[in-house]
Specification:
This protein is an all-alpha fold. Helix content is 53%, strand content 2%. A two-stranded parallel ribbon has the order 1-2. It has helices at 13-21, 30-42, 48-61, 67-70, 75-81, 91-108, 113-118, 141-152, 160-169, 183-190, and strands spanning 126-127, 173-174.
């Protein structure tokens, strides 16, 4: 029997696995959140599936998203990445990850990055009950506040729509539609 999934999921096996095993599940580890935020920024103007297929290459190219290693990347490293077909070869997007690593370290001096991000949803998942994908917003007041705070702290490629996609992905909101087989599981994870 075919599993009922959110309507945005294609027949692509990678996409289905991502939806079924990752999307909407609460993530609290700071470096994992940093990686996901950077990857969501790489999506700007592209499909998430494009980034998902290149995700392993991003982890390789950016030291497993270790901010302390990323901030040490040189202009030569950037030039090498401009020739790396495994990632999106946009200088602005490559530089954004390095800039975001600096911003991450700045925030981490004063507050745990995970606590900082989760504060925009009061440290708990907001559980929605959308029946149709058309009901799901592309941004919210919380994603607008997150985007503004991240930009103020030096982050790039973190607009309100990117922030909301990030919030959905890391389980800050449960936006699986009620007919999706993941909906109930993510509701239960949110209550833990």
């Amino acid at each position: 029997m075919t599993k009922q999934r959110c309507s945005w999921v294609t027949q692509d096996e990678i996409y289905q696995r991502y939806h079924d095993e990752e999307w909407g599940r609460p993530e609290f580890e700071s470096q994992a959140l940093f990686a996901k935020l950077c990857l969501d920024g790489q999506q700007a103007g592209l499909s998430w599936l494009t980034i998902l297929k290149k995700r392993d290459n991003y982890y390789r190219a950016f030291h497993d998203f270790n901010p302390r290693k990323i901030v040490l990347m040189s202009d030569d490293d950037v030039e090498k990445l401009m020739h790396d077909a495994g990632i999106i070869r946009s200088r602005l997007k490559i530089l954004a990850i390095i800039k975001n690593a600096r911003a991450y370290l700045k925030i981490s001096q004063h507050q745990d990055f995970s606590e900082f991000l989760w504060s925009f949803v009061e440290q708990r998942t907001e559980c929605n009950n959308f029946r149709h994908a058309s009901e799901v917003p592309v941004s919210t007041d919380a994603s607008k506040r997150m985007a503004k705070a991240l930009k103020k702290n030096g982050f790039s490629f973190v607009g309100e729509t990117i922030c909301y996609a990030f919030m959905q992905a890391v389980g800050m909101v449960n936006d699986h539609t009620t007919d999706c087989h993941c909906y109930t599981e993510c509701q239960q994870l949110a209550k833990k």
